[in-house]
Amino acid sequence: KLADDNLKLAIQAFEDIMDNVASRGSPVSLVSEEDVPTIGETTEVSPADAKLLGRLLEFFDRFAQQNSTDFTQEMADIRSRIGDIQVRLGRTAEAEESYKASAQTYLTLRESRPGSLPLLLAHAKIWNRLGVAYSQSGRVVEAFEAHHHACQLLEENTIDKDSLEVQLEIGQSLILADTVFIRSGASEVMAEMFRDRGNRPPPPPEGIGPLRRPRENEPGQIERPPRENDGRGNPRVSDRGGRSAWRRPINDWDKGSIRAVALLEKLWAEHPDHTQIRLLLASAHRNRYYANRVRHMSDQANVDLQIAIDHMTALGELDRNSPTYRFELADLLCLPIASSSPESLNEESISRLERSIAISEKLLSETPTIPEYQAILGLALRRLASIHQSANKLELADAEYRRAIEIQRPLAVRYPSTSVYQVAYVKSLAGLADLNKLRENYPEAKEALDRAIVVLQDFLDKHEDDRVLRLSSYKKRLQERRDKIAEKLSKPSSEPLDMPAT
Question: Are 263 and 252 in contact (CB under 8 A)?
Answer without folding.
Answer: no
